[in-house]
Specification:
Length: 256
């Protein structure tokens, strides 16, 4: 995900604007969802704050080479189902207000677990978009004229689209879900939401290709001794003298 964030941020000839989260994002969503649901109805919205971890992801502060969500078309979110030893991908299409679900092994006995998880994302994400001032920064989104947003409240859950026929499936009994997720991310990062099944027929080839790409990238970076300021966030940023988290939040608010 870091490599693809870097490529999307600095790479040439890519008209698709995107960023990704990390595997910890799911935990942050579930934690705040539990607090939200367990709170009295009149207090629920007060548990969602822009300085929370989820708000930091949206503002672009949380992970290396991140981009604020108001600057992208898609947010790609790898999700680990710990209890099922399985990875899947969620894609937030901002303009269409859709949450796409990419699961390389659809099973009836697991669908309820996935469905429950996806519902949590669809409910919590709009709440944080609202409290971080996201919609005021997007000139291409108008709740009166943008088709996907007409007659929607800013806090309404996202629409969900299950990608099944549009994507390839891994073989029964295989443990290739992680490589499939990496491939799904790569395709969506180039603007391809539907993925031809024949393109992933040899998943081992993609595994070798990703290994070679990452090895080459890491080797060149190590040889150059490079670290760019735009990559320095979180604890690393504070060690290098960047503003504290609450100070960075205040700066963001002043720019509205």
């Amino acid at each position: 995900m870091y490599y693809l964030r870097k490529r999307g941020k600095y790479g040439p000839n890519n008209n698709t604007r995107f960023t990704t989260t990390d595997c910890l994002f799911k935990t942050k969503i579930e934690r705040i969802y539990d607090k939200f649901i367990s709170s009295p109805p009149e207090q629920r919205y007060s548990v969602v704050k822009p300085e929370d971890d989820v708000g930091e992801y949206i503002l672009g502060y949380r992970i290396l080479a991140n981009v604020a969500w108001d600057l992208v078309d898609y947010v790609l979110m790898p999700v680990n189902l710990v209890e099922n030893f399985h990875w899947l991908l969620l894609v937030f299409d901002i303009k269409d207000r859709q949450l796409y679900v990419y699961d390389s092994m659809v099973r009836a006995n697991r669908h309820k677990t996935v469905e429950t998880l996806v519902d949590k994302f669809s409910i919590i994400i709009p709440l944080y978009l609202s409290c971080t001032g996201f919609y005021g920064k997007r000139k291409d989104i108008n709740f009166k004229s943008t088709k996907a947003y007409i007659e929607k409240l800013v806090t309404d859950p996202l629409d969900i689209q299950w990608m099944v026929a549009e994507i390839p499936q891994q073989k029964e009994g295989s443990v290739d879900c992680g490589v499939f997720v990496a491939a799904f991310v790569e395709y969506v990062s180039l603007g391809d939401l539907a993925i031809p099944k024949e393109d992933l027929s040899d998943i081992d080839q993609h595994r070798r290709r990703y290994g070679a790409l990452l090895w080459d990238y890491a080797t060149k970076k190590q040889e150059d001794g490079s670290i760019s300021e735009s990559e320095v966030t979180g604890r690393l940023a504070r060690r290098k003298g960047a503003p504290a988290k609450n100070e960075r939040t205040r700066v963001q608010r002043k720019k509205k």
